[in-house]
Amino acid sequence: xxASLSDEERDEYSDGTVKLRNSNIExxxxxxxxxxxLGSESHDLIEMFGxxxxxxxGGTPKRMxxxxxxxMNEIGYKLPAGTQLQDISAYSYRxxxxxxxxxxxVSHGMGxxxxxxxxxxMIKLMYHSRCEDPVFxxxxxxxxxxxxxxxxxxxxxxxxxxxRPSHEFTILGKTVHRPAKLDKKLARELKALSGDEDPYxxxxxxxxxxxxFYEGQGRLDGAFCEFSxxxxxxxxxxxxxxxxxxxxxxxxxxAALTHHAGIKAAVICVALLNRLNGDQVNSxxxxxxEWQQRPQELVSRYIxxxxxxx
Length: 310
Ligand code: URA
Hints:
Elements: H1 24-27, E1 32-33, E2 38-39, H2 45-49, E3 54-58, H3 61-75, E4 97-100, E5 103-107, H4 112-128, E6 135-144, E7 152-159, E8 166-171, E9 174-179, H5 184-192, E10 202-209, H6 229-241, E11 244-248, H7 251-260, E12 264-274, H8 285-309
Parallel strand pairs: 3-5, 3-6, 6-12, 7-10, 10-11
Antiparallel strand pairs: 1-2, 4-5, 6-11, 7-12, 8-9
Bound molecules: uracil (URA).
Residues 141-143, 213, 217, 247-249, 272 line the site of uracil.
């Protein structure tokens, strides 16, 4: 299956199954997925989610609700007569989740702690539901470095703010690093689905993941700023020299936990601005709305292609 991959791409986690790597879960009478408002005994998770093949995540509940409606139309999925799309996790008051046939659309909030909590429960959800080879895709927004607003970036590898290709965890007070690896073959497959006729660029590049939008991303316009414009530009140029093309706040945890679970994953973000030109996100709302459709369009092409092969 992996014959065409290089040694670097083929690794110990690449057999596609969901690994829980926690023997405690099997011994529990029930597992409550608290932040999803689901549970292994209170819900028939195999019946509800066993057919899931694509888990698409993005920051806001509204974006994921829009994505759910969009993908329903794209794949021609019909809800049972008299029913409407429902937020399955509405009573968690934390995350939103919509199911459209084999596609789950889930909001993950902002920043790595929010994504981390969701990922633990989504990975357990895949395990309890006995999903086979689900693919996880983050659909997000980012700041570009040397690329125009509206450019779509498929992450090749995620880096933390110290330019390490891993996510740093603190577990029992100790520092643990897990590699922030994404599926390179999936990234290439997605890139191949970007069309010459698209009126914007889609590129593959390295992504920086920070713990903050303002000082953490070298912005001059936060509530505090204790560095000069020159310091900022030097930092952005250093990132660029390392091949970093965009900055966001979720990719390392998303990559590290999917990789640890043996789940194939990708991150696709649209740039809201070119950080070499400024810090404020000030494009008109309608323009940004159209830009945010672009990663969704690419994901839709991918899902349709995979479904057509089945
Ligand atoms: N998201 C980020 O994290 N940074 C940006 O500059 C834009 C979107």
